[in-house]
Amino acid sequence: MAPALNSFQQRLLARTERAPGSRKHARTTSDASDFPAQVTPSSPLAGVSASVPATRNTTNTVQNFAKKQKLRGDQLTQVDTFLGDAPTVRKGKLFCLLLAMQNELGNIVTAAPPFAVSAELKVNIQNYAHAVLLSPKLANYRGDLPVQHVMSILWKHRFDLPPGIENNPAELAKIQTVIQEAFTQCRSTIKKKLFASVRVWRTNEKGEKVVVNLPADKHQNLFALAQALVDGTKCRITNVLCGRIALMRECYMANSSTSFWTDVDAALVTMRETAGGNDELRDDLFEDLIADDKEKHGAVDIIYQTTNDVQQEVDDLIDATTADAVSTPAPSTPGPSHSARDSGSPAPPEEPAGESEQPASSIE
Length: 364
Hints:
With 364 residues, the chain is mainly α. Helix content is 56%, strand content 3%. Residues 15-54, 318-364 are annotated as: Disordered.
């Protein structure tokens, strides 16, 4: 018994030494048959196509929405047909409609009227043309530089400009023409007011209209002239503006012909060269012009005003782009873009009542 017992004990010991959970043999197929196989339940939508036409509830909802959008009767019929189509047909119809819309947009762009400068844009151009001409930072009154300043302001604010006009030279030319005409009108207005400050039109014994210089005590003083020039504009009377006006009147008294503005530009160049970049010396030169004007045309205490936002914007823009640089005066012969109003003698102003009784000092 002892050997048999020892053999049994050895087998028992061998069983206890095996790792827990280990098996002598792998599980066979017959073992798995003890458990039922997992069955995947069939989907209730299996075999049903995704391209199911819209249900009646969907159709009613869409039709009600279409009626709220005030679609026509034939369009409501098209909507009902569209809802009953297969998805592929719907996609094809949508693509066709997109192409048709593209064609319609092309027809609209083709049929668009040619660009024209609007009345609102003309008003803005006129206002800024006045501000540029009355700016103490302007280097010259003739030439392309003033036009460029106004164009820069238009690009900044856009106003009534259509998109992409920068790439259309023909439409840009229309705007530049309006700006040039605005400057021509502004220069003509300034020249007429300079004329009215020292001269009048008279009818001589032969019935002819002649220009008569007023006596000094009848001249318009500098402050009154400045008020007349800023009237109707967004500019204000400042000391530097009065210096420019005094320079204009001095040039006008020496030469009121068609080369007047050329003389003004040349005088500005001379003053800049004399100042040599010294702003204080340049301001002193303008103060001397103001003193001379008061002596010749009437002493007056000028009430200076602070610069408003519009004039300050123009001054900053001109100062940034030109830095009061020296520029060559424009030729005296006006180009085709300049109106005869700027080149010829100013039109006679309305003669004040009783003015014809004033004595004339000289006749041009």
